[in-house]
Amino acid sequence: MKRPITLLFFILTFIFIIAFSQTLIVTSIPPLGYAFQQIGGKYVKIEVLTHAGDNPHTYSLNPRQVLTISKAEIFGDLGLKEDKWIAQKVMAINPNINVVDTASNFHQFLIGEDENYNPHVWLDVKLYEMICINVYYALVKVSPSHKNYYAENLGNMIEKLENLNSKISSMLSPYKGKPFVAQHPAWDYFARAYGLGKEYSLENNAGQGITPIEYKNIILAMKKYRITHIIGDPVTPSRMSENLATQTGAKIIEINPVYIYNYFDLMEEIAQKFAEALK
After folding, report:
1. Contact in structure between 219 and 236 (CB atoms under 8 Å)
2. Cβ-contact 140, 147 below 8 angstroms
3. DSSP classification of residue 103
4. Using N-to-C axis directions, what is the helix angle for 125-142 and 147-172, rounded to 10°?
5. 19 band by pLDDT with thresholds 50, 70 and 90
6. How far apart are CA 154 and CA 42, in angstroms?
7. How many other C-beta atoms lie within 10 A of the C-beta of residue 42?
8. How far apart are CA 76 and CA 80, in angstroms?
9. pLDDT tens per residue, range 218-242
10. Alpha carbon of residue 130 to chain centroid
11. How far apart are CA 170 and CA 142, in angstroms?
């Protein structure tokens, strides 16, 4: 009986040591949490602040998250205007937290105007690779003794992302140059990465509805280019999208741009639904 008890003791001790040595990390959105998890592996514990059903523009922290933030070592965000409000809340709770701007070297790749860039950079797989590289350096800075482990995980992640990028490129190659209509202007990076045409959006970058003249021009574009689907957002339903669908006979296909934790599942679902919408 002593041997099983001794073995159990060592197993529990090992689990405790690993748990105790984990770096506690909070991130603003699931794709960033997934990047930290895949590269940090057994040495990190992740808390994503926003989940499916949350509106990232109006989200408020709950008491459990406030407690987690107070103990966390790293906060990972995109460093863009879209994330500033939540970063300010996190730093107010934990002034000593290490804020990691995972898009710190993206300036030349950003779409939009200075201080008002489109924040949906993770929808370009090549930019997501850069996010993963930034995550790697952030983890090494906090835990340099695990550098080789993180490097191996990063290498595996980059290889899988390259395969994902090739797969999506192949799926969408028949639709190069084809314009589309979207409820929310979330798809600029995705469209640029995979050669899609112009995105006609029913909202501006501030999330406000377009003008009647712009709305009329979208109807004309849908007739001209035979656009039969509208890309909807399952998190924030839109009356304007529903009206446009009724007026034009188009079908709304809801595509989740962020709230699937596994990045590979997220991007494959997006590509499949875009292929359906662009037929």
Report:
1. no
2. yes
3. T
4. 170
5. very low
6. 14
7. 12
8. 12
9. 999 999 999 999 999 887 778 999 9
10. 13
11. 39
